[in-house]
Design brief:
three-stranded parallel sheet; alpha/beta; TIM Barrel; binds zinc ion; globular; 10 helices
Length: 273
């Protein structure tokens, strides 16, 4: 099994050392892991997000720090011959800064990376401290509309092969809207799935939802079945761990869902089956 969605403490929202995550993954016998450190390049959120922790110190993101991060990941990979460690990132996406994301990818050439919708109207909808500010002001119809517009632009950008937590809107949206969110979301999903298939973009199965009171990962089984019928593949599985204890959590559920749905598997996951 692989876990291709991990946040060691290079990410602003994690305090877990890379070494501790690696030990946890190795103890579970994972065949490969990929730290996916948050990269948030939204110029309208510079003071909030644009940081990376290197050498234990949170610092404003710049190229030298990325190089140090890369050296750290590559160094760890060299020390763990039996378990592959890939260089990865999780990019927050917004159309108004997609050139910055493109330049970053071109410059640092990660082995694997995810594209994610973390903000709507530049408000962090996946942030505990910010999400209510968006959801309180938005109807569920508007929230789903805004989310899918952003998702469609992410897919259309051509920057990403894999979308992180496809229905991540439910993380903090569900407490506001309940089941109406699920219904509205499912009703709007198919056109985006079709767009993903035509542009060769797949999804990840992200098990962090199971640690947040949901009974299914992101995306739900119903959405996975819809994705399958539209021709979308699962390209990755990940725990979205922010601690050593969360590494590898519920991955067997993700793998079981892939089997149950009979959904196709794409790279890089297919390289590790
Ligand atoms: Zn994310
Ligand atoms: Zn993440």
């Amino acid at each position: 099994m692989i876990d291709f969605h991990l946040h060691p403490n290079h990410s602003i929202d994690s305090r877990c050392r890379l070494a501790d995550m690696i030990e946890s993954a190795a103890a579970q016998g994972l065949s490969a892991i990929c730290p996916t450190t948050h990269i948030d390049l939204n110029p309208k959120r510079t003071a909030l997000d644009r940081f990376i922790r290197v050498g234990g110190k949170l610092q404003y993101l710049h190229d030298d720090l990325i190089e140090r991060y890369i050296a750290e990941i590559r160094g760890a990979a060299a020390n763990y011959g039996c378990m592959r460690i890939l260089l990865g990132f999780e990019f927050s996406y917004g159309r108004h800064f997609e050139e910055l994301v493109k330049d970053f990818i071109d410059k640092f050439k990660p082995d694997f990376y995810l594209g994610a919708i973390h903000c709507l109207e530049n408000i962090g909808i996946t942030s505990k401290s910010e999400a209510a500010g968006y959801y309180r002001a938005a109807t569920p119809e508007r929230a789903v509309e805004d989310y899918f517009r952003a998702m469609s632009e992410l897919v259309e950008s051509g920057l990403f092969k894999t979308v992180a937590h496809f229905d991540g809107i439910k993380k903090y949206g569900y407490p506001f809207y309940g089941n109406s969110l699920t219904k509205l979301f499912e009703a709007k999903s198919e056109p985006v799935f079709a767009q993903m298939t035509s542009l060769d973009v797949g999804i990840e199965i992200n098990t962090s939802a199971l640690r947040r009171g949901f009974t299914e990962p992101y995306p739900s089984k119903r959405l996975l079945e819809m994705a399958k019928s539209c021709g979308v593949s699962v390209n990755s599985v990940g725990s979205d761990a922010h601690s050593a204890e969360e590494v590898g959590r519920d991955l067997e559920t993700a793998y079981r869902l892939i089997d149950e749905c009979g959904i196709s598997v794409g790279k890089p996951l297919s390289d590790f089956l």
